[in-house]
Amino acid sequence: MIPRTDGGGSVVSVTRGTVCEKGHFFKSKVPIGKLVWFLFSWATEIPLHHVTWQLTLSPRTAVDWGNFIRNICAEDVRRNPRQLGGFDNNGQPVVVEIDESYFLRRKFHRGRRVNGLWVFAAIERDSGLCVMEVVPDRTAQTLVPLIQQWCLPGTHIISDGWAAYSNLSQLNGGVYLHDAVVHQENFVDPLHPEIHTQNVENLWMRAKRKLRRQFGTTRQLFDTYLREFVWQERHKGHQHRLAALLVCKRQQYPC
C-alpha cells in the first residue's frame, strides 16, 4: 500500500476517501487490485463469467458487484432523462429513428416458455443517443405519448410502416416531420436513401446480443439491464465510460 500524509504528519492510505478505499465502493472488503480490474472489465464489456474466472471471485461476489454497478447506471438514467431530436445548430431538424421490438423470445422454440416484452426505442441518427422503454403493447395510445415525451418539437421522425405511426405528422398541429419506410417493400427508400431505420435496427441487434449474454430470460431485472445498456450507449469509449461510472457513484453515494 502506498502511504501519504494527511497534512498533519500522520501516514494514511493513498486510497482513503476514494472509490478504491476498502469497503467504500461495494460496502465490503474489496481487494483494490481486483476492484480495479473488475471495473475495467465491466467498462470493456468482458463477460461476467470470464471476469469471475480471471479474478478468482466467487460467483456470488461477482454477481453482487455487477448488480451494484448496474443499479448505479439505471438510477443515473432515471435521474437524467434526455430528450431527443429538435433542431441542430444550423436550424435543421434532427433525425430520430423509432421502432419497437420483442424481447425474451425463445430461440428456435427451445427452452422454457417465457412471456416476452415489447420495447419501444428512439435513437438520434447522428449522435447515437437513445431511449428505450418497456411498453405493454404497440398501439397508438401507448406509443404516441412516448414519442411526445421523448422527441422534441421539430424532430424529423423516421419509422417503419406500423399503423400506430400513421398520424405523427399531424400531432399538435404538425410539430414533427415524419417519413416511413415500408419494410414489406424496401428497407431503404429507393428514391430517398436517407429514409431508413437501419440505426434503430442496429440498436436492437446490439441490445439483444448484450442482454441475452448477460441474463438470458430473467424478467424481473429486465428494466435495469435495459437502462444499463442505454447508459452505456450514452458513454462510448472505455475510459470515458469508467470515469462516468465513478462520477455517478460519487453522486449517488457521497463520501
From TrEMBL:
The cross-references to InterPro entries, in alphabetical order and at most eight, read: IS1016-like_transposase (IPR053164), Tnp_ISXO2-like (IPR024445)
Q: Which domain of life is it from?
A: Eukaryota
Pfam families listed in its UniProt record: DDE_Tnp_IS1595 (PF12762)
Q: Which residues form the ISXO2-like transposase domain?
A: 83-234
Matching PANTHER family: DDE_TNP_IS1595 DOMAIN-CONTAINING PROTEIN, SI:DKEY-17M8.2
Q: Which NCBIfam families match?
A: transpos_IS1595
List the protein's name: ISXO2-like transposase domain-containing protein
Which species is listed as the source?
A: Ridgeia piscesae
